[in-house]
Amino acid sequence: MTTYDANGVTLEQVREYVWEIPQDGEMRVPARVLASESLLDEISDDKTLEQLRNTTHLPGITDYAICMPDGHQGYGFPVGGVGAMDAENGCISPGAVGYDINCGVRMMTTNLTYDDVQGHERELVDSLFANVPSGLGGGGIVEAGIDTIDEILARGVDWALEHDYAVEDDLRHCEDEGVREEADPAAVSQKAKDRGKNQIGSLGSGNHFLEVQRVTDVFDDEVGAAFGLTEDQIVVLIHCGSRGLGHQTCNDYLRKIEQHHQGLLNQLPDKELAAAPAGSQLAEEYYAAMNAAINFAWVNRQLIMHRSREVFERVFDRSWQDMEMELLYDVAHNIAKKETHTIGAAAHSADVASGADPRADETERELYVHRKGATRAFPAGHPEVPAAYRDVGQPVIIPGSMGAGSYVLRGGEASMDLTFGSTAHGAGRLMSRTQAKDEYWGGDVQEELEADHQIYVKAQSGATVAEEAPGVYKDVDEVVRVSDALGIGDKVARTFPVCNIKG
Amino acid sequence: MPYELRPHTADVAVAATGRTLSAVFEATADGLAAASCDELVDSGEQLDITVSAESLEALLFEYLDELIYVRDVELVLPVDHEVSIAERAGGWELEGRARGIPLDEIDAREVKAVTYADMRIEETAAGWEAYVVFDV
């Protein structure tokens, strides 16, 4: 058997791109890493594997803790981690969702081509930067009181529809039509709402951005057509989350769980993994609060998309409807969701070669599927894929760095067996922010992108540009190649940046 | 410098030292400000901060969480921290002061949250040491 040794952790190769840390000691299940050897070299370079192994200690974790090809060290749970906990006997963990609840990506298509935009890049980037709030303390598109916050938390994009920030079609192209019904605004603290009320419709900073892109490749014509993607077309990608409201919600519940479920916490190797047992009052409350924050993040991205349509209208002097600026899809990549999965399937799919009946002891279970830095990737035919895409599979949007391409994938046939219907979420960081600032200077990065690649970048902070320089990220092409080869997310199209704004 | 910014793949960590417990809390908070902004200015009004918690680690978490909350709500970056910490029945109490620099006067980046990941607060022969990872 091929093995891979990484700082005292031995991984066994199950098959190509599938590596396993066997169950040992306090681990409740084995852990799996989905990666090529070159990605594994990067994944094993920090605490990712230790964090992955720690997550297998969580009660009710099912089949495997899984690290996606873009995995890297996070806090508690690794970024790029998927953990499915039994919704009856398991747990839900705020740290396994992450601070930025429903951090995610949406892509809007247009009927513009790169030719239409060339010559307007400077005006477009300046106007987007001036009109889409970003950075720290930059305010939001909507100024709101607590009543409005409560409505947004309860109703999600339906609120935006009522207030003319969305059209019906936007809801049809968003996961859950842009609203989690299980949301309860009362489960979100006053502090979280106070933080949220001046940030509704804002990018924030860090790795969040808005990018105008051109489609450079369509790999699958049939699915590309179903997604409305053609080569040379202009699209807009928006990457941000639930802002301070989500961050505060995560911390509020980490502290409550620490105070009320000390017994469970003491069994875990990392305090950041604090989890509420399924069925407990705090599990219910956190789930209701997290769903409310999910709704907030969807509204946040919707407002930014709406504002981008207005900017395009001014720059190109045409209505957004005329430019067919339509939401392709919105995916969350920091989320926990109650989903029904066939368990045991992941274990058996690897053993088919042994001749054992692969479906012998599978059962259907309701699970809290935690995806932290991982994207849902349901295949064609799955009932939870919006009707518009059910025949081809759920769109998956994988943002790359501002100097590399991004990808559109579709949920792959193997995702339900291998990853609880999940794939990667991005390129994954390689270099720390402190090191990035030593190696890069924001102004140089910006000039180089414009001179060498015709990418126009505008940011509130030069330091953010340095911290997000293309060189600090893994090779997104390799991440996507592995996702495609495993059949968890199939390549549909690739895009390349034209204009990028960030905090 | 009583604090250092340490590399972390996606985020930023602060390692701080102080001769007293109060001093290490102040240094950690100054580290949070440094992780948010490279060049501070002299303006800003005084802010008062009060938090309490059942343990020292929880107190550090609550204190840093409160500073991030104040930043988002008051739209100021808290700097120049001074705290006094007292042990009370069932836990710890912190009373703090800071200067809040208006965000529109500086080039500041968002630190999203304080985390418990690898958090340490320990008494040593030389005083106190703390280590905190922030989500950026």
Could you characterize the architecture of this molecule?
The complex is a heterodimer of chains A (503) and B (136). Chain A has an 8-stranded mixed beta sheet, with helices on both faces. In chain A, strands 8, 9, 10, 12, 16, 17, 19 and 20 form an 8-stranded mixed beta sheet that branches. By secondary structure, chain A is of the alpha+beta class. Helices cover 34% and strands 27% of the residues of chain A. The model of chain A is unreliable at 348-355 (pLDDT under 50). In chain A, helix 5 packs across helix 12 and helix 8 (190-196) runs antiparallel to helix 10 (243-260). Chain A has helices at 37-43, 48-55, 114-117, 121-131, 146-155, 157-162, 168-172, 190-196, 221-227, 243-260, 262-266, 281-316, 345-349, 415-418, 433-439, 442-453, 462-467, 476-486; strands at 3-6, 9-15, 18-21, 31-34, 61-75, 77-86, 91-92, 104-113, 209-218, 233-240, 276-277, 326-332, 334-343, 363-372, 375-376, 395-398, 406-411, 422-423, 456-459, 489-502. With 136 residues, chain B is of the alpha+beta class. Chain B has one domain (3-135): Archease domain (Archease, Possible Chaperone, Chain: A, domain 1), CATH 3.55.10.10. Chain B is 26% helix and 46% strand. Chain B has 2 helices and 8 strands, in the order E-E-H-E-H-E-E-E-E-E. Chain B has helices spanning 21-36, 56-74; strands at 3-7, 12-18, 45-53, 76-88, 91-102, 113-114, 120-124, 127-135. Chain B is globular, with a radius of gyration of 14 Å. Chain A binds chain B through residues 46, 72-76, 79, 95, 98-100, 135-137, 191, 194-195, 198-199, 204-206, 244, 247-248, 250-251, 254-255, 258-259, 270-272, 274, 429-435, 460-464, 503, and chain B through 5-12, 36, 38, 54, 57-58, 61-62, 65, 68-69, 71-73, 75, 77, 103-104, 107-110, 112-119, 133, 135-136. Chain B: InterPro entries: Archease (IPR002804), Archease_dom (IPR023572), Archease_dom_sf (IPR036820). Chain B: This is Archease domain-containing protein. Chain B: Belongs to the archease family. Chain B: Keywords: Calcium, Metal-binding, tRNA processing.
